[in-house]
Amino acid sequence: MIMIKKLKRYAELKERYEFINSRISSASSINYESSFSNKAFISKSKIEKYIIEKERIEEEMNDIEDELDEIKSMKDRTILELKYFENRTNDEIAYQLNCSVATVKRRIKRILNELEN
Cα(109)–Cα(13) distance, rounded to whole angstroms? Predict the structure, then answer.
């Protein structure tokens, strides 16, 4: 159960990470454009907060990825990434990997049990 929570947490972190990256990029371009016009600057402290949060998120994501490195089979890792990182259904995973839905369910259960122990 702990690993499922971590995998779901990874998906949340990834989404937040992408949001922060877009905010940092847009803040940089707004500040650059503002230097040539009357547009308002985004504060340096706000950008710094985003950068600090981005670094924290990267660290947490790396920790989860390190745990996933214990998975030796690329197919097993792919199944977990599709399921928890890309929020794919078992049907979609089965179609993509050309196997049955029952096989996908069985492999997910086995992989998670291995990671928990």
Answer: 23
* Cβ atoms < 10 Å from Cβ of 96: 13
**Amino acid identity, residue 31?**
N
What mean pLDDT comes out for the span 12-36?
76
Number of Cβ within 10 Å of residue 67's Cβ equals 15
Dmax of the chain from CA atoms? Answer: 60
- Please give the DSSP secondary-structure letter assigned to residue 70: T
CA dihedral of residues 15, 19, 25, 30 (deg, nearest 10): 170
Its pTM surpasses 0.85: no
pLDDT digits (tens, 9 = 90+) for 56-68: 999 999 999 888 8
Sign of the CA dihedral 4, 109, 114, 66? negative
